[in-house]
Amino acid sequence: MLGRLNHVALAVPDLAAAIAAYRDTLGAEVTEPQALPEHGVTVVFVNVGNTKIELLEPLGENSPIAAFLAKNPSGGMHHLCYEVDDILAARDQLKAAGARVLGDGNPKPGAHGKPVLFLHPKDFFGTLIELEQS
Q1: pLDDT tens string for the chain (134 positions)?
Q2: Residue boundaries of the structural domains of the chain
Q3: 57 catalytic residue (yes or no)
Q4: Which backbone phi and psi does 46 adopt, to 5 degrees?
Q5: Which of 38, 43, 93, 97 lies 20 to 30 Å from 28 when distance is taken between CA atoms?
């Protein structure tokens, strides 16, 4: 079911500072910030060759990233994103196996414009999992 690791997402308290650290200190290629109101975040992607690092900053007071940063003020790893060939088939297979899909269970467009779903971290050893249709 799982394809390649698409990205590792890091929640950051200051997106501009995180961009500067990756671009200026580490010499990485960083995309322009993209607001995703339906997910309550502003994101950038850091290209690291074989995958990407997604830097997430809260967008709005109800952002799930704001709640994460309240518990982890310095930021930290938020989720892993894996590609799947068929997100609906993957969802149905996971639900049949007892995994919990967050939200209403229907995919939403993610930062790459492709359908995404999130799986409950308690079902995956404390790690939030995002699935993205490849």
Answers
A1: 999 999 999 999 999 999 999 999 999 999 999 999 989 999 999 999 899 999 999 998 889 999 999 999 999 999 999 999 999 999 999 999 999 999 999 999 999 999 999 999 999 999 999 999 99
A2: 2-133
A3: no
A4: -105, 120
A5: 38
Predicted pLDDT at 124: 97
Dig out the tokens for 132 from the structure. Answer: 């993205």
Strands 52-58 and 76-84: unpaired
For 2-133, CATH gives 3.10.180.10
For the chain, strand residue ranges (E) read 2-11, 29-30, 34-36, 41-47, 52-58, 76-84, 108-109, 115-119, 128-133
- Spatial distance between the Cα atoms of 131 and 37, rounded to a whole number of angstroms: 19
Both tokens of 44, joined, read 């950038």
Residue pair 2/84 in contact (Cβ under 8 Å)? The answer is yes
Check if the beta carbon of residue 105 is closer than 8 Å to that of residue 119: no
Active-site residue identified among 54, 57, 83, 130: 130
